[in-house]
Amino acid sequence: MTGVIEKFFITSMVMWMAPLAILYSFYYGYIPGASQLSAENKTLISGFIAVISVNLVIGFYICMAMKESPSSSNPQPDPKFLAEAKASINQSENAASSSTGVDQTSGKDSDQNKGKME
Fold this sequence. Notes:
By secondary structure, this protein is mainly α.
């Protein structure tokens, strides 16, 4: 689980840093040939490249997720939750069986009353 969080954190940081680095490098002329471009072209080209870099990072993250091996063990429910669920089911079954016993006797009484009415 920590590996997944670590990968997510790293790719999230790269998604923030890559576009900012691209925009910064175009603005200050660290990329060869960028200083000869007009301000409008610098803005457009650096913006497009920044957007493409974010999409590449997302694609890389998806590829890493697809190549990740599934967990070797099947997921197991929490033992505490399982015990509480079984206790709840048993409690509801006991309550249902005691209430159906009452219904059966009331049902017999109603059958007898029907016979008297006819």
